[in-house]
Amino acid sequence: MAKVTFLTDLCKGCGLCVDACPKQILIIAKEKINAKGHSPAEMTDPSKCIGCAFCATMCPDCVITVEK
């Protein structure tokens, strides 16, 4: 299983990672606000992650790290 880490305080909630995820397990957290005033991305079910790193590749701010 892959380990995915989000630097949520730096995420601007653009949603590019959400669109890139083939398993559709990423969402923009509507109920959370980070230090920059944005709703950050988060993973709904880490057990379904295949570690493809499409989310990290698409992130313009490099706030996602995927480790296999």
Give the % helix: 10-25%
Structural class assignment: alpha+beta
Count of DSSP-assigned helices: 2
- Mass-distribution shape: globular
Q: Unreliable runs, pLDDT <50, ≥5 residues?
A: none
Number of strands: 4
Q: Work out the strand percent.
A: 15-25%
Mean pLDDT: 96
| Domain module tally | 1
The CATH topology corresponds to Alpha-Beta Plaits
Give the C-level CATH assignment: Alpha Beta
Order of helices and strands: EHEEHE
The name of the CATH architecture is 2-Layer Sandwich
Query: Which strand order spans the largest sheet, edge to edge or round the barrel?
Result: 1-4
Overview of the molecule:
With 68 residues, the chain is α+β, with helices and mostly antiparallel strands. It has a single domain (3-67), classed as 2-Layer Sandwich (Alpha-Beta Plaits). It has two helices and four strands, in the order βαββαβ. A two-stranded antiparallel ribbon has the order 1-4. The protein has a two-stranded antiparallel sheet with strand order 2-3. It is globular.
What labels describe this entry?
alpha+beta, two-stranded antiparallel ribbon, 15% helix
Can you describe this structure in just a few lines?
By secondary structure, the protein is α+β, with helices and mostly antiparallel strands. Helices cover 15% and strands 21% of the residues.
Layout of helices and strands:
Elements: E1 3-6, H1 16-20, E2 26-28, E3 41-43, H2 54-58, E4 64-67
